[in-house]
Design brief:
The complex is a heterotrimer of chains A (about 575), B (about 290) and C (about 325). Chain B is mostly helical and about 290 residues long. In chain B, about 70% of the residues lie in helices and about 0% in strands. The longest helix of chain B is centred in the last third of the chain and has 37 residues. Chain C is about 75% helix and about 0% strand. Classes of the chains: A alpha+beta (about 575), B mainly alpha (about 290), C mainly alpha (about 325). At the B-C interface, β1, α3, α4, α6 and α8 of B face α1, α5, α6, α7 and α8 of C.
Chain lengths: ~575, ~290, ~325
């Protein structure tokens, strides 16, 4: 275990050194010719199905599209907001955000052009909003435009977004690779119900990015060429970009680290030993970065027992054991999170005791206690809660009921390993666990007719990973409000899977909605995080990082876990062979 | 419809196969090992020895441990029990169904059309999606009724069996059709033999050879289909050791821990081999044309 | 012969319709959801709208009727347009994949070349290896050759492709660097050199698949040959003093090929869907990969259309097998 930790440090050091080199090289390269370095080959083992982020919310589609389509602003590799197509980030101090927080003014950079040579105007901003909010279009990014009543275009470069209520954090629409600008001329006939049938447009959108689509084969290959109208001279360094998909994470890692057929491989969820061994050939480098993805265990506060009838899974019938915080805390204490990191993620995961592990301002420091396993403490807690092993079968009981939990998760090798390990630890404190693994397409499908969804949660304990988009957790934390509990009345829709309900918590979310001061926001965020974690309604386990790999001959890669990994592909270049 | 009129067959002298005895012996040995082995090697295959992960072979773990510290020998034995049982059961379902349908279709003209259309219909169903849909549709219903292990077992055996009987049926039917025209059958029939007697005494022994070939490939097929299902995430759950599952998990570690792939791979190969040798031998022993001489 | 073929085809059509209805109902009843790959960060209201936009709100029989119309009426018209440059089907709604929002048939057409190249040549090579092995094994039953070929074919048959694939990659792509580990679908064969590149990238997947095919078919060939060799007419031929190779290769082989041809013809369609694992390992992205990807994403129109195409292939293969029967065995009467 020492070994893998060390390896991680080395990795980070290498990564740091490389990014510095990359920045230096980027400056020197800027006066060179565009397209000088030939072709760059990128492997996305989950291949893109289309290149329109508004019709698919999957990263596998959004990230490839980001080499073509660009937003007004995006997050850099440290999670900070940076202006991209806009002149600057609108804030209250520069007048971009009005005092009543009801309007935001974005100004486009001067003389921007689409890859077909036509100018980018504020009309395109307005059109993109119309496109995503058109009736019947099924836009996947709809909630980013939530609350927008109108977008005014006083001149060619200015767009004023009007909200129906004060918006303290307005950086959702047109921010990040998930909501880039579309060209109004190209998509004009694709509004509403016609959106899906615009195959040509969805496969080859016209953008402002460093590359333009040459050929797109869904779920297989995308081929791009350098955008001759790109705004920065001398970029991109590559004249072609081949983005190949298919296979597995293993296929992808091998192609970069072992055979060198590809220059970059995306999202390599492989066991740490395998990656270390592959990287030992020294033709590629493994890079890792963290964002907000947390693998966690949700504890059900309602009774999932079928005998509860109509009240099954609702708070009208609280859980007989888990409604006691002592029991919930004991379950958390029995888990050895360090060991979970080692068997599941290696350097691509780290222990977290928080639901919100990042950005740094939002990370609470008052929950570190979970890092160490405490079997004896857990036993004492259960004793105190009245659960003792009275019949000597190794399983604690109370009033004739055994302390037995059903533990469900999706079918996934790492998750099943985790289930097995946790089952073993819980058996050590006298808790019996029955494991269930549900097919991911059912588990995450949200079908109200199926009993096996994360929302219905007809089990005592469930495990999966959650994250939020961008660098602000407002919407994410609002998901734990009382009114977001899935119930039969709302057709089991809602994100408060554990059925946590606390009026004081709801008040905090109300405050956050109108808090414009960054310090106040992060304070509120931490307070909400602490409420959830210290109530043990969810047990954060692991902060899961993103891991990718690139060839040693590729320069300029800065792994960005807050936005697209291909966000700075314009700066990538080839290191000349010696 | 096709009618074949093959010439009368007679078989030349053949040596008695040594392979059959060897195959049968090996198969019995494997079956014994996986059924009795776990009694002798009593480490729980699901126990995680988290401090002894990725151990090389030692006295405590003769084949080493996997990435969670589970004993590989125990897992290969436990996995074998499931794989062999799945193989035998699915083969029985598939060959039983195939032989029955083939016999009936070949023997009774009035059933022929109907049964062969049924076979065509099944052949026209794409098997992989069908398997998937079967598994997805009935997994929950079955696991709730008879428990997760038995439920999945029944489902996988049933699904493999129901989607693999068609070849056997077609081959058996073809042979039965040809046999019906032969003199000894005609003679037996004119001698007043009943249908049941005819089938059991004359037809069945003569079509045993294709049935046995189907059966031997059927066991292997079932074991391999199960492993492919596991690999695609549609078979037994990932924590459920079967040979196929162990092999699928081991492919990632081919370079570091080749043993993890070698042992379950060897087990599958040996099983398939032993069954094949056994079937070849059985065919020659059971074939009435050779038995007459013995 | 022609009337026989026509009759078989007329039976095939209702079978196909029945099959597609069966598949449709099964898929519709199966759990799983096209929204499952949409991240959890997307709120439920948005999911509901996306679902609506896919047409999932419609009742089953309407969706089936629409699909039937699209497959049996609109798609053939599109094909006509492609072949003859007509414009029978402009602006008609085609079968659209839920994943890509593109016509399923276009994607099939895009993926057919690599499937045909790799799977097709693997099948042909596999058969070419299998037949001599099967014949020789039967001819010299229980010889060293027979025993060892049985051993080798059984090992090849019993080791799954998800093991042989990575094994070959580790040896030939990683260690020796003789072949790429990834299949480039955009590679176009224009001259000798690019043809050799194509051969190189096909080498490993073809080897994996051919070994499996050869192992199965050689067993059938051997069994069938063993049945034929002791027959009277073979003895007669020998007694007439014919050379041994003529006896075996002309007289015995012709008859024993009859069941083998059936197996080969019936196995061909299965190869197209059955190469899923190999396609995944080498990132070939053929039709098999398309099917499994669509299954995982709950993309019902794609699954439905692909399975239907497989059904068509299988029915055609059956027909082909029957016709080949007639060609190989003149005694077979079609009544």
């Amino acid at each position: 275990m020492q070994h893998s930790v060390h390896w991680g440090f080395e990795l980070l050091v290498i990564f740091r050194a490389l990014t510095l080199a990359a920045i230096a090289a980027g400056v020197a390269a800027s006066d060179q010719k565009r397209g000088r370095d030939g072709q760059v080959n990128v492997f996305f083992w989950q291949a893109p199905s289309l290149l329109n982020p508004y019709l698919s919310a999957g990263l596998k589609d959004i990230e490839p599209a980001s080499v073509v389509l660009e937003p007004l602003a995006r997050f850099d590799d440290s999670g900070a907001l940076v202006a991209w197509l806009a002149e600057q980030i609108p804030t209250r101090s520069n007048g971009g955000i009005s005092h009543d927080l009801r309007s935001v003014t974005w100004v486009l950079q001067d003389s921007l052009v689409w890859s077909d040579g036509s100018p980018v105007t504020s009309q395109d901003i307005r059109f993109t909003w119309q496109y995503c909010t058109a009736e019947g279009g099924g836009c996947a990014q709809f909630d980013r435009f939530d609350g927008i009543t109108d977008i005014e275009t006083p001149d060619e470069l200015t767009a004023i977004i009007r909200f129906d209520a004060p918006k303290a954090y307005p950086y959702k629409a047109f921010v990040g690779s998930g909501s880039p600008l579309l060209q109004s001329a190209q998509f004009a006939d694709c509004l509403g119900p016609r959106a899906p049938s615009c195959t040509t447009e969805n496969f080859a959108p016209i953008g402002t990015g460093p590359f333009r689509v040459e050929e797109f084969r869904p779920n297989d290959v995308a081929f791009f060429s350098a955008n001759s109208n790109y705004r920065e001279t001398g970029k991109p360094a590559f004249s072609y970009l081949l983005l190949k998909g298919g296979g597995t994470a293993e296929t992808a890692a091998r192609a970069v680290l072992e055979t060198g057929e590809f220059d970059y491989a995306w999202n390599l969820q492989l066991s740490p030993e395998v990656l270390t061994r592959m990287a030992a050939r020294d033709i590629g480098i493994v890079i890792a970065g963290f964002s907000t993805l947390v693998e966690q265990i949700y504890l059900n506060l309602s009774d999932p027992d079928p005998s509860a009838g109509e009240m099954r899974g609702t708070l009208e019938k609280p859980h007989p054991a888990l409604s006691d915080p002592k029991v919930r805390r004991a379950l958390s204490m029995a888990i050895d999170r360090q060991l979970l990191v080692e068997i599941g993620y290696g350097t691509t995961g780290r222990i977290t005791c928080n639901v919100v592990p990042a950005p740094a301002a939002f990370r609470s420091s008052s929950n570190e206690g979970c890092e160490v396993q405490d079997i004896e403490g857990a036993k004492a807690l259960l004793d105190a809660a009245g659960w003792v092993d009275s019949d000597g079968d190794g399983i604690r009981d109370r009033d004739g009921d055994d302390l037995t939990f059903v533990f469900q998760t999706s079918v996934n090798a790492v998750r099943q390993n985790f289930q097995n390990a946790i089952k073993q630890w819980w058996s050590e404190i006298g808790v019996e666990t029955e494991l269930r693994a549900i097919d991911a397409s059912v588990f995450f499908g949200g079908d109200a007719g199926s009993p096996d969804t994360v929302q219905k949660f007809f089990a005592d304990v469930q495990m999966f990973a959650s994250m939020f988009d961008g660098n602000d957790p407002e919407a994410y934390m609002a998901g734990w409000r009382c009114d977001r509990i899935p119930t039969p009345e709302n057709q089991w829709q809602g994100s408060n899977y554990a059925r946590f309900c606390d009026p004081a918590y709801d008040e905090l979310t109300d405050l956050m909605r109108i808090a414009a001061d960054p310090n106040e926001r992060s304070e509120l965020g931490r307070a909400m995080n602490d409420k959830l974690v210290q109530n043990y309604v969810t047990l954060p386990l692991i902060d899961r990082g993103r891991v990718s790999a690139h060839s040693t001959s590729l320069n300029g890669v800065r792994l960005n876990t807050w936005d697209s990994e291909l966000w700075n592909i314009a700066d990538w270049s080839r290191i000349a062979a010696e | 419809m096709i009618k074949r009129a093959l010439p009368r067959r007679q078989r030349g002298p053949l040596r008695r196969p040594k392979g059959a005895v060897f195959g049968a012996g090996l198969f019995v040995l494997i079956v014994l090992a996986v059924y009795i082995g776990p009694l002798l090697w009593s480490i729980d295959p699901a126990y995680l020895d988290l401090l002894a992960r990725n151990a090389r072979s030692s006295l405590a773990h003769p084949l080493g441990t996997d990435e969670l510290g589970r004993d590989i020998l125990a897992r290969v034995l436990a996995g074998g029990r499931i794989s062999i049982t799945v193989g035998l059961a699915a083969m029985a379902v598939s060959v039983g169904l195939g032989a029955l349908i083939g016999l009936l279709a070949g023997f009774y003209n009035r059933l022929d059309g109907l049964l062969m259309r049924l076979t065509d219909l099944f052949l026209a169903l794409p098997l992989l999606p069908l398997l998937l849909v079967l598994v997805a549709l009935f997994r929950d219903a079955l696991t709730q009724r008879v428990g997760p292990e038995l439920g999945l077992f029944t489902l996988i055996v049933g699904a493999i069996g129901v989607t693999s009987w068609m070849q056997t049926a077609r081959i058996v039917r073809g042979d039965v059709l040809a046999l019906k025209e032969r003199e000894f059958i005609l003679a037996a029939r004119s001698g007043g033999a009943r249908d049941r007697h005819l089938i059991a005494r004359h037809i069945l022994p003569n079509v045993l050879s294709p049935i046995l070939v189907s059966a031997s490939l059927g066991i292997a097929n079932a074991i391999i289909t199960e492993s492919a299902l596991s690999f695609l995430g549609l078979g037994f759950p990932p924590d459920f050791a079967t040979w196929g599952r162990l092999l699928a998990d081991a492919t990632l570690y081919l370079q570091d821990y080749p043993g993890r792939a070698l042992w379950p791979g060897l087990a599958i190969s040996l099983t398939v081999l032993s069954v094949t040798y056994m079937a070849d031998g059985l065919r020659d022993t059971l074939d009435p044309r050779t038995r007459a001489r013995m | 012969m022609l009337s026989f073929t026509l009759r078989r085809l007329s039976v095939a059509v209702p079978i196909l319709v029945l099959t597609s209805l069966l598949i449709f109902l099964l898929l519709d009843a199966a759990p799983g959801d096209p929204m499952s790959q949409v991240p959890l960060t997307v709120p439920p209201e948005v999911r509901a709208q996306m679902r609506e936009a896919l047409g999932l709100g419609e009742p089953v029989y309407l969706r089936f009727a629409l699909w039937m119309k699209q497959v049996f009426w609109i798609e053939p018209k599109i094909l006509m347009d492609h072949m003859f440059g007509t414009s029978l089907a402009t602006n008609e709604l085609r079968v659209l994949s839920w994943q890509t929002r593109a016509p399923v048939m276009d994607m099939v057409a895009e993926r057919l070349p690599q499937t045909l190249w790799v799977v097709g040549s693997a099948y042909v090579i596999g058969i070419a290896i299998a037949l001599p092995i099967g014949i020789l094994s039967a001819y010299r039953q229980y010889s060293v050759f027979d025993t060892s070929s049985t051993f080798v074919t059984m090992v090849a048959y019993s080791v799954p492709t998800f093991v042989t694939g990575p094994l070959l990659i580790v040896i030939f792509a990683v260690q020796l660097g003789w072949a790429p580990s990834i299949y480039n679908t955009t590679h176009r064969v224009t001259d000798w050199q690019s043809f050799m590149v194509q051969v190189q990238q096909m080498m490993l997947p073809v080897a994996v698949l051919a070994a499996q095919t050869a192992a199965q078919i050689s067993r059938y060939m051997r069994a069938s040959m063993l049945d034929t060799l002791p027959l009277d007419y073979i003895r007669t031929a020998r007694a007439k003093g014919m050379p041994e190779h003529v006896v075996v290769l002309r007289h015995a082989l012709r008859n024993s090929m009859i069941p083998v041809v059936t197996v080969i013809a019936l196995g061909a369609p299965a190869m197209f869907g059955g190469a899923i694992i190999t396609e995944q390992i080498f990132a070939i992205n053929g039709i098999g990969a398309q099917l499994i990807g669509a299954l995982q994403a709950g993309d019902l129109p794609t699954v439905q259309t692909l399975t239907f195409l497989f059904a068509v292939l299988i029915v055609l293969a059956n027909l082909l097998a029957d016709i080949l029967y007639g060609l190989l065995d003149p005694r077979i009467r079609y009544d």
